[in-house]
């Protein structure tokens, strides 16, 4: 049986226990029984284990089987050695965090179970237990996790390849890995050992076990709490500040009475922010709810194959916003309000500041985006600049919260209740004076140099409040009446007016950091409490009737009587009051910082001047320094827009005066542009340099352009990328603040040296010269200077008349 390495190791998938385990796995009723039985053991011990592990207390661990992947066995010498080494290292190196169960004790407890578990003769031998078996055994020994793994010789002979040891610590409650390690070591033979020596392999296992346990000790157990859940999206209260990352899988547990834990699902982080994360539901077996506990699961970094292959273990973190829809927005706003009561929540993200210029003046481009909580209800963005315009200083603001209530009452008598809601009052939250405000339709601001007033046209900025919840009440009146008042406090959006000229401009050459917040408005209804009991009923009065009677007998009598009638009205009505007002809760979110950016005034090229003719074999431009610029780049191109990087020649040079303006700058040495491969990529320039215009014509003289770029090199990412203009482009080759391009032309090039292709002009000149020149014949060698030796006649001999033969 072969099991691929790209699947996680399942306890029980071992050679000796395969038949029993596989039969168990095929029975769906057994699977259900396993889950139910496992949940019965999810008790206080596991909760204690989670809390103990988080507090770096010892976690009781059973050491299970390690599989030799090449032998497909947990009983090979290599597998048993890995199991034994891992136990020994847990006892020694891992003692601060782990308390491994002694194998002899473990096997003794396995025999005592009802029904008992099979046990090998060697305590370190293969167990072949399933996760269900380990759950039963863990309850008996007080362990809440089992350590298992695999070992693989990835390539070459056993004593000359690489060995991979993978260890996985599985939590018996979450039924998923919560810790683990991957170690890759080289199998090195000692002098005198055979190439196939097992000693070298076992030594490698020992080294790998030490490294694996060290990794596990260093890894922290991360927990979180579920804040909200709706339609497949879960928000937890932990983020990147707490070590949570995109792609992390989280087991969701619920604490029951008595501290017992049950697993209710699995979620995956799709977007992790500073102090919260958005998660996708992967499993929801028990109904995930707010206040459930999240336990981050361990995921191996790499996937190894039997052939020695190694790849990154990637996960999909793409979130499906269309499926979440409006529920996501409502959920995000709810979490935002909860977070606001605890001191704020960031809704902006990816804030980037980049130096640039416009019409020769320096600028800083600030861009940002919205996270999932900031995609609705934004009234205004605030851009702050450190150190001169920081957030957090108190602002001036007013409040527009309002509310009213009504009440009714009734009774046998007459009664009634009325209520009115009072105007709410707000308290100013954190809000300094921003360097600028931006409408919600835009996500970019261009900061300007001093003097500049960003409030010249808008007159001020909104201010956030954080008020208390709205309340209301009614008070009882006199007999037969009821009156009352409703009171509420709420937040509201205020407005700070800026009068006169406020210079928000920056100083060129100085480094700044920007921060962006959002002003969000939320409607909060006023709810008044019920009215008091209706008024007491009136007192009824009446006059009794007159009684008469006739007596029969010897005499006549007169009967008189008086009747008294009384009535009482009882008032038993109940007044009710409800609020109909609406309060605006106005929140300024937490500031999100950018990188540092240094605005640079574009440099002033001084030579060559525009339109000059330049010897491009010795090109050496000059320019002046700028405050804040410690790195310059000289660029030359045949394209005046400098938008094609393939035909732009660049050379960088450090400034000699980064803290001064106007100091002359130049290249360390002149450069030969005729040898620049970027310029030679232009056919016109290449033809000019080679001297060939085609069809015997004179080559066209190209037009060249140069410009000077400047930047503060410590700014990351740096100025706006001239080519892509993208804030997230990591390429820094064209991240400079550039001067305007300067046009120049090359002077004619001289003929090429002998052995090289000459220019057409040089070829014509040589041809004409050869026709006009008269070459004197060489003097015969028959007359020698030295008798018996033939020499050519020298010019001196001709002049002296001694080089000729006598006749």
Provide a brief overview of the structure.
This protein is α+β, with helices and mostly antiparallel strands and 807 residues long.
Outline the secondary-structure elements.
Layout: H1 18-26, H2 28-40, H3 44-54, E1 59-68, H4 77-92, E2 98-100, H5 103-112, H6 131-141, E3 145-153, E4 162-171, E5 176-186, H7 198-218, E6 223-230, E7 233-236, E8 249-255, E9 261-272, E10 277-283, E11 293-296, E12 302-304, E13 310-312, H8 321-340, E14 348-358, E15 361-370, E16 378-386, E17 405-408, E18 436-438, E19 444-447, E20 460-463, E21 494-497, E22 512-525, E23 539-546, E24 562-568, E25 576-579, E26 582-588, E27 592-597, E28 605-607, E29 612-614, E30 622-624, E31 631-637, E32 648-654, E33 664-666, H9 677-680, H10 683-690, E34 704-711, E35 737-738, E36 742-746, H11 760-772, H12 795-800
Parallel strand pairs: 1-2, 1-3, 29-36
Antiparallel strand pairs: 3-4, 4-5, 6-7, 6-11, 7-10, 8-9, 8-11, 9-10, 12-13, 14-15, 15-19, 16-18, 16-22, 17-25, 20-21, 22-26, 22-27, 23-24, 28-30, 30-33, 31-32, 31-34, 34-35, 34-36
Helix pairs in contact: 4-7
